[in-house]
């Protein structure tokens, strides 16, 4: 069953002006749909069709809008942002396990290959998207791999949510999502989209002292945090997000990896990001200061500079 509202919330009421709107509006933009691994997937593109390609994978309960500020700071690149299955305008997976998300992402990148002229894209994941990208990049049991040139993980999830300091909060959140899924439809939807809860999550993650930027961040969460296919898909995605990390597959990722962490990230402490970097065969870590788990909203220009520098690195050669 599709529990999404019939109208996009962004189209039904005036919003807060984006500080990145002028940059975003200057980019060519395209929207289309594709069948990916049996899932109808909404795909949003930014930048020239002949530019070097980057696939962006957004985080839990978000959609493509969340990564638009980073795309806005990468003119000249072709940025492809699919809505994850079950979120935004994409249909849900039959069962939203981490392996199913990883298989879907491998299929998406493979399906885009002909349009990219044989060039393998870079693939970026933010937060829960970092887990999806990492598991897709690690070779699957059937031998399939993510056909990506390089991997970029923003606010990567390095700490198991059900272990350590975050255990109690994660269990509370899991109970919240399970209760919302068990309630009658109307009550469950009201619990999931309750404004105090959505705002509380936004306040917890935001670190900026810029009042105008903070208003926009809260407005973004108000608009897009409750755009999902069903309550069950939200529960399954949350379950996947708290039971898996990037670190559990880091050693099996062959591509060069760029980690972009934040010194005030309450989801994954910085010390864990340094330990995560050491788990990859080939990784580097950039730490942004004065920001937490919302790098894509608060410091997209700084993140874009790191991305450009990483993608400009010469490719390694055999014997190097």
UniProtKB/TrEMBL annotation:
It comes from the Bacteria. Pfam families: Abhydrolase_6 (PF12697). InterPro entries: AB_hydrolase_1, AB_hydrolase_fold, AB_hydrolase_sf, Epox_hydrolase-like. Residues 54-305 form the AB hydrolase-1 domain. GO terms for cellular component: membrane. One of its GO terms (molecular function) is catalytic activity. PANTHER family: HYDROLASE, PUTATIVE (AFU_ORTHOLOGUE AFUA_2G14860)-RELATED (PTHR43798:SF33), MONOACYLGLYCEROL LIPASE (PTHR43798). This is Pimeloyl-ACP methyl ester carboxylesterase. It comes from Agrococcus baldri.
């Amino acid at each position: 069953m599709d529990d999404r509202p019939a109208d996009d919330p962004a189209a039904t009421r005036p919003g807060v002006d984006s500080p990145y709107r002028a940059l975003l509006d200057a980019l060519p933009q395209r929207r289309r749909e594709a069948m990916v691994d049996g899932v109808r997937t909404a795909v949003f593109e930014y930048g020239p069709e002949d530019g070097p390609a980057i696939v962006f994978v957004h985080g839990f309960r978000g959609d493509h809008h969340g990564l638009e500020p980073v795309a806005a700071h990468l003119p000249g690149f072709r940025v492809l942002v699919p809505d994850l299955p079950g979120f935004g305008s994409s249909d849900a997976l039959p069962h939203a396990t981490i392996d199913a998300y990883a298989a879907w992402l491998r299929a998406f990148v493979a399906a885009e290959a002909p349009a990219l002229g044989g060039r393998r894209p870079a693939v970026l994941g933010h937060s829960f998207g970092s887990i999806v990208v990492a598991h897709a990049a690690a070779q699957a049991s059937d031998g399939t791999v993510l056909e990506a040139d390089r991997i970029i993980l923003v606010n990567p999830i390095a700490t198991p949510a059900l272990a350590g300091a975050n255990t109690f909060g994660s269990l509370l959140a899991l109970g919240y999502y399970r209760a919302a899924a068990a309630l009658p439809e109307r009550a469950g939807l009201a619990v999931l989209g309750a404004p105090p809860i959505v705002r509380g999550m936004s306040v917890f993650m935001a670190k900026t002292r810029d009042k105008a930027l903070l208003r926009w961040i809260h407005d973004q969460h108000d608009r897009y945090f409750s755009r999902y296919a069903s309550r069950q898909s939200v529960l399954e995605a949350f379950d996947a997000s708290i039971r898996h990390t990037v670190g559990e597959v880091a050693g099996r990722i062959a591509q060069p990896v760029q980690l972009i962490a934040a010194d005030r990230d309450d989801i994954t402490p910085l010390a864990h990001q340094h330990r995560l970097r050491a788990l990859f065969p080939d990784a580097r870590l950039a730490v942004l200061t004065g920001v937490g788990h919302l790098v894509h909203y608060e410091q997209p220009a700084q993140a874009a500079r790191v991305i450009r520098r990483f993608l400009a690195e010469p490719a390694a050669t055999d014997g190097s």
